[in-house]
Specification:
Layout (H helix, E strand, L loop, with lengths): L2 H12 L3 E6 L5 E5 L4 H11 L6 E6 L4 E6 L1
């Protein structure tokens, strides 16, 4: 599956729950979602698409906290 196919697939499935999508390269994209949707989103990526979870990292911007899940 190409990155464009993946992003189209994700947009079809979760379009209304996606805040922002940024395609960085053919192998990397950032997808911002609402925190309440993380379980459904990750379950779909991990189980349905068979992506492998690599790691999670956090970013503290002093006024907000981001958690980045790497698949």
């Amino acid at each position: 599956m190409t990155m464009d196919e993946f992003l189209k697939n994700i947009n079809t499935r979760f379009g209304g729950n996606i805040l922002n999508v940024k395609k960085v390269s053919g192998k990397r994209a950032y997808i911002d979602i609402y925190p309440k949707d993380i379980k459904d989103f990750v379950r779909y990526i991990f189980k349905d698409l068979s992506f492998r979870f690599d790691t999670a990292s956090g970013v503290d911007d002093f006024d907000s906290l981001e958690i980045l899940y790497h698949f």
